[in-house]
Specification:
By secondary structure, the protein is an alpha/beta fold. The protein has ten helices and twelve strands. The chain folds into two domains: 52 residues, Spermidine synthase, tetramerisation domain (Spermidine Synthase, Chain: A, domain 2); 223 residues, Rossmann fold (3-Layer(aba) Sandwich), CATH 3.40.50.150. The chain is globular and about 55 Å long. The mean pLDDT is 97. It binds 1-{4-[(3-aminopropyl)amino]butyl}guanidine (AG3).
């Protein structure tokens, strides 16, 4: 028997992988969660029909969402991760000995429970003593914080369902307020190819650019996200992602990575012309 999982990229394009076994399927008050075993990508976490991570390529996403801001901020001590219940982003952050506190704010406890069971490779960092897990709505949580974090990483789902609030102006304003004076906010910034992703990407960029004086976008090749090409937002109060990159200091930490390098860091902000154009269109409004 052949079993295949298919994600729809649009009404006219889709992506499939052969499934050797469905390991888990469940419904929380927030969303549907599936875990699949596949030959090509290893275990795969699917939420509401969209691939959130695969064992095979999650390193690219998690390294890019964490090491880029960590190599720019001169002294990141207090970090918040909003969403990211699979623990992949936290796993990268615990590799920095000078980080004092990592708060993970995940709305859905079932994501963490399921990932603890099926993805020990991403949840390993959650047991680090510096990590505090809060099962809370990120919008409300950030709304009550002031001058608290050096870095906020928004590792969300797409802006439909529980992730919607994490793409609002109100949330970005709360993050701005929650950050210290040299704070950075990084978010998963959707794709630049299929129409729904482009709309979400443009909306996020328009709103972030209204709130933060520095608002840049960077890219990575992520094979299992729509079009294989995904974006991240880098927003900050003062720090520029290229001019303030602390290349030597970061190298000295000796963190071994499979995707991130400081050369790649610089190249990641050099966007294709069509992407620059779709971002510029919304910045002018
Ligand atoms: N981050 C999910 C990124 C967006 C995925 N969207 C999509 N495939 N349409 C959360 C998982 C990684 N920690």
């Amino acid at each position: 028997m052949e079993l295949w999982f298919t994600e729809y990229y649009s009404n006219h394009a889709r992506f499939s992988m052969r499934v050797s076994k469905q390991l888990y399927s469940g419904e929380s008050p927030f969303q549907r969660i599936d875990v699949l075993e596949t030959q090509e990508y290893g275990r795969v976490l699917v939420i509401d029909g969209f691939i959130m991570l695969t064992e095979r390529d999650e390193f690219i996403y998690h390294e890019m969402i964490s090491h880029v801001p960590m190599a720019v901020h001169p002294n990141p001590r207090k970090v918040a991760v909003v969403g990211g219940g699979d623990g992949g982003t936290v796993r990268e952050l615990v590799r920095y000995p000078d980080v004092e506190r990592i708060d993970l704010i995940e709305i859905d406890q079932l994501v963490v429970d399921v990932c603890r069971e099926f993805f020990p490779s991403t949840t390993s960092g959650l047991s680090d003593p510096r990590v505090n897990v809060y099962y809370a709505d990120g919008v409300q949580f950030m709304g009550s914080c002031q001058d608290k974090y050096d870095l906020i990483i928004v590792d969300s789902t797409d802006p439909i369902g529980p992730g919607e609030g994490l793409f609002t102006r109100e949330f970005y304003q709360s993050c701005f307020k929650a950050l210290a004076e040299d704070g950075i906010m990084v978010n998963q910034h959707e794709g630049a190819f299929y129409d729904d992703d482009v709309r979400a990407c443009q909306r996020a960029h328009a709103r972030i650019s209204e709130v933060f004086p520095i608002s840049k976008v960077y890219q990575a090749n992520i094979p299992t996200y729509a079009s294989g090409y995904w974006l991240f937002g880098f927003a900050s109060k003062k720090l520029d992602p290229i001019e303030d990159l602390r290349e030597e200091e970061w190298e000295k930490l000796g963190i071994s990575t499979r995707h991130y390098t400081t050369s790649l860091h610089k190249g990641a902000f050099a966007l294709p012309a069509y992407v620059e154009k779709l971002l510029a269109e919304v910045r002018r409004r």
